[in-house]
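Re: the pair you flagged

First of the two:
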Amino acid sequence: MKNRLSIVRLLAAITLSWAVNTGCADQQMQGSASAPKANSEARQAIKNASDAISLANQNNWIWLNTEKLLKQAQAAAESGDNSKAVELASQAKFQAEAAIIQYNYEKDHPRGL
């Protein structure tokens, strides 16, 4: 009787393990197959914005929402909303470039107190 109970427990553990592994593998395949991808235009816009932000950060002069816009653009691209990703990345790039212009202007035109 004790031997039979051990076999039943072993079979139950094997069955449960198989079911969990099969379910996880199936879910992982569905997630990777159905995950939308950013198109090349969105990826390029995000890269351009990221490069402009890096330049602005070198001066330690960046506007408050610029990096938030980039993160929103990346999230939109990951969800497959490429047009929104391009729009947000373009806004982030514009703000970063404007911050660089502002930094250079402030540097060349100091306003002492």
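Second of the two:
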Amino acid sequence: MKSKCIKCYYESEGNFKKFGVPLCSICLRFAPFEEKRFTEYIKEKVDCRNLETFRKFSEIGNPQKKGMTKKASQGFLMSRPPFGYKAEKNKLVLGQNSNEVVEIFEGFLESKINLTKISQKHKISINGIKKILRNFTYIGKIKFNSKIYEGDHPIIISPTLFNRVQDKLEKISARKLRSSVF
């Protein structure tokens, strides 16, 4: 259903809402986050023809993104191979260090080992270890553009192990959040 942007009067099915008010993608991009400033912002009207250049050039990257989304939905990785994999003929295959991925996941679940010790043992930064622990690729999935697709590559760890690690990471984050609030 088409709606009209309240700021520039651009009519489109692709308009968004902010604070319950329809806005085109260009006006939304410049809209303030605070409701009071937003109300002032939408009072200043703009002729939608003056925004055509912005509209035209904001579409340039979309065909590429659509192609990448299609490839991800077919199971292809959209970035360099993660730790534990290597690329051969545009496919992910197990790398020589794939067994280290299992060690990292299992080590993280041990109560006596923390991220610092795992980081030191594998000579990977703590943030690198966190990236590994959150990476869906290891359970045969591809994450692209906030969506998860079935991958076309060998899995390194079981979904059960992955989920147990995600639960522990979530508990650690919640604990840190509670301690910083109080």
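The mean pLDDT is 88.

-B.
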